[in-house]
Amino acid sequence: MNATDPVSNLAGLIRCPSVTPAEGGALALLETLLSPLGFEVDRVVATEDGTPDVENLYARLGTDGPHLMFAGHTDVVPVGDEAAWSHPPFAAEIAGGEMFGRGAVDMKGGIACFVAAIARHIENHGKPKGSVSFLITGDEEGPSINGTSKLLEWAAAKGERWDACVVGEPTNPNQLGDMIKIGRRGSLSGRITVQGVQGHAAYPHLADNPIRGMLQLTHALMDPPFDSGTDNFQPSNLEVTTIDTGNAATNVIPARATASFNIRFNDTWTAETLRAEIIRRLDAAAADGALRPARTPVNYEIVWADRPSHVFLTRNNALISSLSGAVAEVTGLEPKLSTTGGTSDARFIKDYCPVVEFGLVGQTMHMVDERVAVADLETLTRIYETFIERWFGHAAQ
Q1: CA 353 from chain center: how many Å?
Q2: 334 is catalytic
Q3: What is the C-alpha separation between 344 and 169, in angstroms, rounded?
Q4: At residue 278, what are phi and psi to the nearest 5 degrees?
Q5: Which of 26, 57, 95, 295 is deepest in the core (most CB within 10 A)?
Q6: pLDDT tens track for 203-257
Q7: Given 140, 141, 178, 376, which residue is catalytic?
Q8: Catalytic residue status for 140
Q9: Residue of 230, 236, 388 lying closest to 313 (CA atoms)
Q10: What is the b/e burial string over 264-291, where b = at least 16 CB atoms within 10 angstroms of the residue's CB?
Q11: How many angstroms separate the CA atoms of 200 and 250, rounded?
Q12: What is the DSSP letter of 173?
């Protein structure tokens, strides 16, 4: 394989069926591409009780600073109904100027392009005056326990330090050059249980319907809004994602009700202050008798999900301006600096160095017939190659 060709790189990666947590040959292929370029490659297996083992990859070229990291994941989501695909999901077939395959944009395409970019830089300019590393996980689409966070801990324990990072997630909504992610909202989830008293629907005075209490609690979580947004982030938003009683009978008042929720929050809050606000709202709503007149306060408990994602914003001008300038030089577009969307592994990396995200157009990610325009692979490679030159040039000043 010619590592300078992003199309060939991506075709090889797509043909590795690396559905989380399977390595599928994708990391082995990356090692084959990176080792001849002079990268020292480590394959690191991370483990934790109750979760599947996950293999990850860390590769470094150079020993001196400044040190630029590229981060991403080779694991992909399941293909779903394979018969619904117009091209086999792991065949990397090209039709109509597009390459089809699971992971084409999320995010094997970004990895393929960055490999090609650094390979071209070495071919045209020699090795960078500093270091470049790849931090690639196989657990981004899964529970994200044995992936980037543990690989970062492993590398930091070895003495690795980084000055900046680009994550190759598909950040562009419509065309290459639309958007760079310079931060992410936080994410906090919880599960509420309301205890009631089971009984006959015709004799509600002999029972205590937990659904009435749950409606009071969930209404308080959704109204009023938590905030109106900040200069860099949209308003925090809470969604109730499930309400369940486990009751199949229409004439039985259930004994309990449960509800799950998730809130994506901005830099008005921390996970700790947000938990306190949610408890305040729930306690006030529990004492409200609007739906439960003459009743004692709602008997509820809440269990918080492990590992909330914390909000962050990157303000590193050298990183942001180098990438924005590269995008503008190659595409002629001025990318929007955004904090929208869900979480990514950048939430772990931001504790080690400044991080931004930029990759392909994400319109088909996780869909049947996930695909990428072949022309976009060349364009993204040129953007990354220009960025590498700009960033190391800026860092040397």
Answers
A1: 17
A2: no
A3: 8
A4: -65, -45
A5: 26
A6: 999 999 999 999 999 999 999 999 999 999 999 999 999 999 999 999 999 999 9
A7: 140
A8: yes
A9: 230
A10: bbbbbbebeebbebbeebbeebbeeeeb
A11: 10
A12: S
Given the residues 75, 106, 141, 357, select the one marked as catalytic: 75
* Spatial separation of the C-alpha atoms in residues 244 and 357, rounded to whole Å: 37
Burial class (CB in 10 A: 0-12, 13-18, 19+), 241: exposed
Q: Name which of 206, 125, 157 is nearest 385 in CA terms.
A: 125
- What does DSSP assign to residue 90? T
Nearest-CA neighbor of 212 among 225, 199, 231, 224? 199
C-alpha 230/C-alpha 284 separation (Å) is 27
Q: Is 54 helix (H, G, I), strand (E, B) or coil?
A: strand
Q: Can you tell me whether residue 159 is helix, strand or coil?
A: coil
Helix (H) or strand (E) holding 30: helix 26-34
Q: How many Å from the N-terminal Cα to the C-terminal Cα in the chain?
A: 36
Mean pLDDT of 30-45: 98
CA–CA distance, 95 with 107 (Å, rounded to integer): 20
Main-chain phi, psi angles of 195, to 5 degrees: -90, 135
CA distance 292 to 203: 15
Phi and psi of 74, rounded to 5°? -100, -10
pTM for the full model?
Answer: 0.91
Return the structure tokens found at 102: 């699971």
Question: Using CA atoms in the order 95, 86, 16, 119, what is the torsion angle rounded to 10 degrees?
Answer: 20
User: How far apart are the C-alpha atoms of 70 and 135, rounded to whole Å?
Assistant: 6
Q: Tokens representing 10?
A: 């991506």
**Phi (first) and psi of residue 11, to 5 degrees:** -60, -45
Residue 275 to residues 49, 249, 263, 305, Cα–Cα distance (Å): 27, 35, 10, 11
Q: What confidence category does residue 394 fall into, taking pLDDT thresholds of 50, 70 and 90?
A: confident
Which segments within 271-310 are labelled E, that is strand? 299-304
One-letter amino acid of 326: A
Would you mind telling me the total number of residues written for the chain in this entry? 397
Two tokens at 332? 């002629």
